[in-house]
Amino acid sequence: MTVSKAYADLERRGRIVRRHGLGCFVSPAKDGNREDEEFGTGNGGRTGDWKRDAGSNYGNNGEGERGQSRIPGRNTGQDKTGTRKRFGWQEDFEDYLPRAQLWRNFDYSEAEYSFHLAAIHSGLLPLKEIGEAMTMLVAKRPELMSAYGNFQGDLELREVMTKHLRTRGISLSAASLMITSGTQQGIDLVARTFIGPGDAVYLEEPSYTGAIDVFAGRGAEMISVPMDEDGMRIDLLTKLCDRRPPKLIYTVPTFQNPSGATMSMERRQRLLELARSYRCLIVEDDPFSDLYFHSPPPPSIKSMDRDGHVVYMKSFSKVLAPGCRMACVAAEGDILERLTAAKAASDLGGPLLIQLAVLPFISDRYDAYMKGLRSALRSRMERAAKLLKRHAPQGVKWRLPEGGLNLWLELPHSVHVGELYRRASRLGISFLTGNVCHVGEPSTNYIRLCYAQMEEEQMERGLLLLMPLLKESMTGTKR
Ligand SMILES: Cc1ncc(COP(=O)(O)O)c(C=O)c1O
Fold first, then answer.
1. Are residues 422 and 461 in the same domain?
2. Membrane spanning segments where (predicted)?
3. Worst-scoring range by mean pLDDT, 100-114, 334-348, 430-444?
4. Domain limits for position 197
5. Is 327 in the pocket of ligand 1 (CB under 6 A)?
């Protein structure tokens, strides 16, 4: 039996229990079967309630030993700042987002060489311009802070955003757009509006960790679809859907996070046809399409959508100012109305001040800025790739990305990724371990390195430190 089948079986039997901050455990069998006890403390085999079990196969450290994670710093409850209090009773106080603990269990605070976030170094972002616009607004229009904005977002900003969507082949009016606090909120709104316990959500394998968390929190049944260099394998998706019809398909078709793959045009069309035949939703998450290095990527799936199947999301925060949390969601008909209601229920509309602060930049400067950003990122990617080519040990594989922020490295199976992570973090190096990009977090031999998060020289120094470590991990030598 495969590990994932065993897991699914245990989950069906209500045998997976989660200890907050410690991970997931197999509970002792009701008949007292002792074989399970070595796997963890458990808490008495509570079963049945989707809320308890929601996503219980996520956030698991995957090693089955009393909260010992294969990822160091994880599930340890360490708090290096010493400011986080711990209360015993809270350990058993259940939440509905088991996997979202990922972020609190990775401690990246001391990373000198940060490769872990898909983020752009602040020196490349137009923070000064946006900051000045913000200061001006606060001084000249302080009343903005006293107003709730429109639930759908500021109309003028939405109108400006329609212009940018046209570059992705999407011709929609401002009435079909909603502004959200980043695409992360967009994914959350879709999930809370349309996904309930047991609904089938298909997604690429590997996929964006933050989306897995959200769907897990809704109790979705997540079904992973393998990918290749042309993106999600639609032939396999079709077969899987025949067995279990989809409610929603989540995809990052362009410069996918983490793999960097871009879905071919033919697959985009087939995916849309499939959604039509199953009358389901596609979430097209598109944070990276402006970050191409050579030629623009294929048009969005949304650009071909005639029946309102696609909810398209474009992040502006990622490329402008992540702290401003700015994205737009494009959807049509009833779907957008329901999402707007969810947005109102979530936060009564995004902050008007921030929307108006980013507006002038998105309106007038975005295209020229993007040109410069693309070339800066391309240069970083090429420098990173050059270093890897020269210093990566034999057996390490990667594909040169055509855009986006990440390198997705396949390591030889002899490398224990958790151990590599532990040793790298001792040198102040952080990266994303591939397992968190999978539903159920199986052991994998992939890591994701973001080449955009640091100054170029710092990034290079980090890679030069990491490569010998990688070599040692392959040969089993210890420092
Ligand atoms: C694929 C993907 N979707 C969504 C997000 C969240 O982006 P935002 O900052 O717009 O919320 C990220 C962030 O890394 C991402 O990689």
1. yes
2. none
3. 100-114
4. 127-366
5. yes
Q: Which of 189, 214, 285 to mutate to test the pocket of ligand 1 (most atoms within 8 A of CB)?
A: 285
Tell me how far the alpha carbon of residue 286 lies from the centroid of ligand 1, in angstroms: 8
Q: What is the amino acid identity at position 195?
A: I
Report the separation in Å between the CA atom of 148 and the middle of ligand 1, taken as the mean of its atom positions. 25
Q: Which of 117, 184, 232 to mutate to test the pocket of ligand 1 (most atoms within 8 A of CB)?
A: 184
Q: Does the CB atom of residue 257 touch ligand 1 within 6 A?
A: yes
Q: Which residue's CA is the nearest one to ligand 1's atom 11? A: 182
What is the distance in A from the centroid of ligand 1 to the CA of 256? Answer: 11
- Do residues 351 and 377 both lie within one domain? no
User: What is the reported pTM?
Assistant: 0.83
Q: Give the whole-angstrom CA distance, residue 397 versus residue 293.
A: 20
Same domain, residue pair 350 and 461: no
Counting the structural domains of the chain, the total is 3
Q: What's the gap in Å between 185 CA and the centre of ligand 1?
A: 9
**Coil/strand/helix, residue 404:** coil
**Cβ-based neighbour number of residue 313 at 10 Å:** 27
Q: Give tens-digit pLDDT for 284-308.
A: 999 999 999 999 999 999 999 999 9
Same domain, 214 and 341: yes
How many C-beta atoms surround the C-beta of residue 253 within 10 A? 24
Q: Which of 73, 105, 137 is the last residue of a domain?
A: 105
What would the two tokens of residue 284 be? 């097209």
Pairing of strands 16-19, 23-26: antiparallel
Count how many residues are written for the chain. 479
Give the tokens for residue 25: 């455990």
Distance 253 CA to ligand 1 centre (A): 13
| Best CA proximity match to 436, nearest among 234, 268, 222, 210 | 210
CA of 58 to the centre of ligand 1 (A): 19
Q: Where is average pLDDT lowest: 60-64, 105-109, 273-277, 282-286?
A: 60-64
Q: What is the mean pLDDT of residues 160-165?
A: 97
Protein residue closest via CA to atom 10 of ligand 1: 182
pLDDT in tens, 343-401: 999 999 999 999 999 999 999 999 999 999 999 999 999 999 999 999 999 999 999 99
- Same domain as 319, residue 174: yes
Q: What is the pLDDT of residue 475?
A: 80
Structure tokens at 377: 């990122």
If you take atom 13 of ligand 1, which residue's CA is the nearest one? 118
* The ligand 1 atom nearest the CA atom of 318: 9
Tell me how far apart the alpha carbons of residues 17 and 27 are, in angstroms, rounded to a whole number.
6
